[in-house]
């Protein structure tokens, strides 16, 4: 798979893509930052009072972490279809405001059962946000620019931990504010911004380039015509309808590839703060802010690698090894991190390597579905991939906690993470092989033997 022309072909194209990068992507990335912070805030609260105050075992905490994804998964596809029908501006704003209200309610949770229900409701309210944001950005730029745009957008996710972890630590240290425990202050502090930004989204977001006052008429015309031409071409070549999307083998293959990376991402996100908390034996007492800085450090590195890797993909065109190599690196590095746990510095180096491998893949992965899906099929297919992938969000938290309770440590759970990530890489290699054989039977050729062919 080649993303096409690597450099802008005209001044209008260059200025239009530049304005989208500067004016639209940062705000959607901010929404994503808040989104990921709110769903992972439980991991920051766990070692600082939540688990003790609510009497949670590791398995119960894992279940609370993962139950979020049940409601999220059930409503993912309907939510993305609603976004396609009603428009991204209104629907993404609705999602943010309603999840923000639920996020604030965590401030007053009193029992494990209440925690389960709130996590479930948070998933219900957040359903459709991420695939909706991916689809929204994909509808603003032609395919050859999506690796760049989605790379800029995806930087928000590692920065959520890099910035969010120290921020959560600072909020936790405000113990006693409003008469609340520190971890409750943290939930209040990360929940309120979702409501505010959700309201702002109604003003800032536009559903398509023709409504963007910050684009010139020439830029609006170029984006509109280029996107229409590309959509018509994709529809003519692939003709994947809405119903066919759910039977499409490539959609399901990409779903399972995504599953592996999300399993690794959430296993790391939910349990890394707890692992860092265990460094006290070697490093002595750490404040919540210090723990946050240590937790966030690997994600700073991951954000830099994500940006550089996306730039390379934009330059070279997406090749199969751009995804497969990081998958195998992550498969090896995550269990290795546990074998060197006696040395906090070496442990965090391997954790950083794992984070880099995951984030190097994700924005480039999401350029794949919209290369053979358009319209309602793109909305449904993107949501289906994210739905299957996010089953890993539930299973990663629960299985990791259960295996930790069963074995007394994180070695076995992290080997499971590594294995799942390796399988993702193997599926993509197999998909590439199948498409290469099909191309050979048809007498077609590709520009490179390494290109990812899914269309």
From TrEMBL:
Task: Supply the alphabetized keyword list.
Answer: Membrane, Transmembrane, Transmembrane helix, Transport
Provide the membrane topology annotation.
Multi-pass membrane protein
Answer whether the UniProt record assigns the keyword Ion transport to this protein: no
The portions of this protein that span the membrane are 24-46, 58-79, 91-110, 116-137, 149-173, 185-205, 251-272, 292-309, 321-339, 345-365, 372-398, 410-431
Indicate the segments forming the Major facilitator superfamily (MFS) profile domain, all copies. Answer: 24-437
Which compartments does it reside in? Answer: Cell membrane
| Protein name in the entry | MFS family permease
Where does this protein come from, organism-wise?
A: Brooklawnia cerclae
Its organism's taxonomic lineage begins at: Bacteria, Bacillati, Actinomycetota, Actinomycetes, Propionibacteriales
């Amino acid at each position: 798979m080649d993303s096409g022309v690597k450099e802008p072909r005209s001044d209008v194209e260059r200025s239009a893509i530049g304005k989208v990068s500067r004016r639209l992507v940062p705000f959607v990335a901010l929404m994503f930052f808040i989104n990921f912070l709110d769903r992972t805030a439980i991991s920051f609260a766990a070692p600082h009072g939540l688990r003790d105050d609510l009497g949670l075992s590791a398995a119960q905490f894992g279940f609370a972490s993962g139950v979020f994804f049940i409601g999220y998964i059930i409503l993912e596809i309907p939510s993305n279809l609603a976004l396609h029908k009603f428009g991204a501006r209104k629907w993404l704003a609705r999602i943010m405001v309603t999840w923000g209200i639920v996020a604030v309610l965590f401030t007053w949770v009193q029992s494990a059962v209440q925690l389960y229900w709130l996590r479930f409701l948070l998933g219900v309210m957040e359903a459709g946000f991420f695939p909706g944001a991916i689809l929204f950005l994909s509808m603003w730029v032609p395919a050859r620019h999506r690796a760049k745009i989605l790379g800029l957008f995806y930087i928000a996710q590692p920065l959520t931990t890099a910035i969010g972890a120290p921020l959560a630590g600072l909020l936790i240290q405000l113990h006693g504010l409003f008469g609340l425990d520190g971890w409750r202050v943290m939930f209040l502090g990360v929940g309120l911004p979702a409501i505010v930004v959700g309201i702002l989204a109604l003003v800032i977001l536009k559903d398509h380039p023709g409504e963007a006052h910050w684009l010139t008429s020439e830029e609006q015309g170029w984006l509109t015509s280029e996107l229409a031409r590309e959509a018509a071409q994709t529809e003519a070549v692939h003709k994947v309808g809405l119903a066919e999307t759910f039977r499409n083998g490539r959609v399901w293959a990409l779903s399972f590839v995504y599953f592996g990376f999300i399993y690794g991402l959430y296993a790391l996100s939910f349990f890394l703060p707890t692992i860092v908390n265990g460094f006290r034996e070697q490093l002595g007492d750490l404040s919540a802010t210090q723990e946050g800085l240590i937790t966030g450090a690997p994600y700073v590195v991951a954000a830099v690698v994500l940006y550089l890797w996306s730039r390379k993909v934009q330059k070279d065109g997406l090749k199969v090894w751009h995804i497969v190599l990081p998958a195998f690196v992550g498969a090896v590095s995550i269990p290795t991190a546990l074998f060197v746990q006696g040395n906090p510095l070496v442990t965090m180096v391997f954790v950083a390597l794992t984070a880099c491998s995951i984030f190097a893949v994700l924005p480039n992965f999401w350029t794949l579905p919209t290369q053979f899906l358009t319209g309602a099929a793109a909305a449904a297919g993107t949501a289906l991939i994210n739905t299957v992938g996010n089953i890993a969000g539930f299973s990663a938290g629960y299985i990791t906690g259960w295996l930790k309770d069963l074995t007394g440590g994180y070695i076995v759970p992290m080997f499971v993470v590594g294995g799942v990530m390796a399988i993702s890489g193997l599926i993509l290699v197999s998909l590439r092989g199948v498409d290469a054989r099909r191309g050979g039977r048809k007498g077609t050729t590709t520009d490179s033997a390494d290109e990812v062919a899914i269309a």
